C-alpha cells in the first residue's frame, strides 16, 4: 500500500504490509529521495507513507524519535531506522547483491566521508539561497571549493562516483543536482560557470538515463512551485 497524500496530525498510521519495508518519506525532501533511489537501485520492494513534516502525526513521532523523514520500518520486527546515511548503510549490508558502497572497507569509509563533506556543501548552498544573495563570502568559498572537489573527484573516478555504475555517492548527491536550476530563481550573486564543471555536466546527463533517477525525478517547475509555498511560510506538499 502506498499513500499518495502527506499524512498530518490526527491521521491514522496505515496498516503495514508484513512482506515489505516501509519508507516514511516526503515528496519534496531530498534526503527521502536518496532512500527512494537506493531502494529502487537495489530492487528492494517497499511501500511508501508520505509525512507532512509541518504537521507530523503523533504516531510517527512515537515510531521515529526525531520526527524527521526519511525513516524505514522493517517488516516483522517493526523496528525503525532513521537518517538517510544510516538507512543506506543498513540496506547495503542487508541486501548485498547489488552493492552501492565499495567492498573494500577503507574505500567504503572514504565514500562515507565524501558524503559527510557533501553535507557541508549542502549547508553552504542553502545559506546562499535562503539569504537571497546576501550570502557570506566564507559560505560561497565552501561551496566553490566543494564543487571543485566534486569535479576533480569525478575526473579521477570515471563516469560515476561509483566508477562505471552509479554508487551510493551518486544517488546521495543527485537530489541536490536535480534541484540545481532553482538557483536561477534566487537573486544570488553566485558565479558558477558551467564550463568549469564539464565532468559534472556529463555526469548529470548520465544520471538522467538511470532507471531509478527517471522514476523519481520531478521537473524544475514543480520544485519551484513547492519552493514558493515553502518560502511563503506555508509549504504545500500536495498540489
Ligand atoms: N540527516 C537527515 C536529515 C533529514 C531531514 O532534515 N529531513 C527533513 C525533511 S527534508 C525533516 O524531516 N525535517 C523536519 C524537521 O526538521 O523537524 C537525513 O539524512 O536523513
Main sheet makeup: 5 strands, mixed
Oligomer: single chain
* Domain module count: 2
**Please, how many helices?**
9
Question: Hey, roughly how much beta strand do the residues contain?
Answer: 5-15%
- Unreliable spans: none
Question: Mind sketching the topology for me?
Answer:
Elements: E1 3-7, E2 21-25, H1 30-41, E3 46-51, H2 58-63, E4 71-73, E5 80-82, H3 84-94, H4 105-130, H5 137-157, H6 168-178, H7 198-208, H8 211-216, H9 220-231
Parallel strand pairs: 1-3, 2-3
Antiparallel strand pairs: 2-4, 4-5
Helix pairs in contact: 1-3, 1-6, 4-5, 4-6, 5-7
The chain binds glutathione (GSH).
Could you characterize what this model shows?
- The chain is an alpha/beta fold and 239 residues long.
- Strands 1-3-2-4-5 form a five-stranded mixed β-sheet, with helices on one face.
- The chain starts with a strand and ends in an 8-residue tail after the last helix.
- α1 (30-41) runs parallel beside α3 and α4 (105-130) runs antiparallel to α5 (137-157).
- Helix content is 49%, strand content 9%.
- The protein has helices spanning 30-41, 58-63, 84-94, 105-130, 137-157, 168-178, 198-208, 211-216, 220-231; strands at 3-7, 21-25, 46-51, 71-73, 80-82.
- The chain folds into two domains: 3-98, Glutaredoxin; 105-208, Glutathione S-transferase Yfyf (Class Pi), Chain A, domain 2 (Up-down Bundle), CATH 1.20.1050.10.
- The protein binds glutathione.
- Residues 26, 29, 31, 53, 67-70, 83-85 line the site of glutathione.
Amino acid at each position: 500500500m502506498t499513500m499518495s497524500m502527506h499524512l498530518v496530525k490526527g491521521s491514522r498510521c496505515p496498516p503495514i504490509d508484513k512482506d515489505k519495508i516501509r519508507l516514511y518519506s516526503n515528496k519534496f525532501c531530498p534526503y527521502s529521495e536518496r532512500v527512494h533511489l537506493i531502494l529502487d537501485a537495489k530492487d528492494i520492494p517497499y511501500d511508501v507513507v508520505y509525512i507532512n513534516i509541518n504537521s507530523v502525526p503523533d504516531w510517527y513521532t512515537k515510531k521515529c524519535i526525531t520526527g524527521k523523514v526519511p525513516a524505514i520500518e522493517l517488516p516483522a520486527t517493526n523496528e525503525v531506522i532513521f537518517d538517510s546515511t544510516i538507512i543506506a548503510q543498513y540496506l547495503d549490508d542487508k541486501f548485498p547483491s547489488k552493492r552501492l558502497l565499495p567492498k573494500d572497507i577503507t574505500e567504503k569509509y572514504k565514500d562515507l566521508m565524501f558524503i559527510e563533506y557533501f553535507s557541508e556543501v549542502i549547508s553552504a548552498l542553502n545559506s546562499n539561497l535562503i539569504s537571497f544573495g546576501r550570502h557570506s563570502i566564507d559560505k560561497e568559498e565552501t561551496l566553490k571549493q566543494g564543487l571543485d572537489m566534486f569535479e576533480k573527484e569525478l575526473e579521477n573516478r570515471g563516469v560515476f562516483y561509483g566508477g562505471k555504475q552509479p554508487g551510493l555517492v551518486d544517488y546521495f548527491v543527485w537530489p541536490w543536482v536535480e534541484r540545481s536550476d532553482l538557483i536561477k530563481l534566487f537573486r544570488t550573486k553566485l558565479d558558477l560557470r558551467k564550463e568549469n564543471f564539464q565532468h559534472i555536466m556529463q555526469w548529470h546527463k548520465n544520471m538522467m538515463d538511470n532507471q531509478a533517477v527517471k522514476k523519481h525525478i520531478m521537473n524544475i517547475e514543480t520544485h519551484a512551485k513547492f519552493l514558493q509555498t515553502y518560502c511563503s511560510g506555508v509549504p504545500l506538499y500536495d498540489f
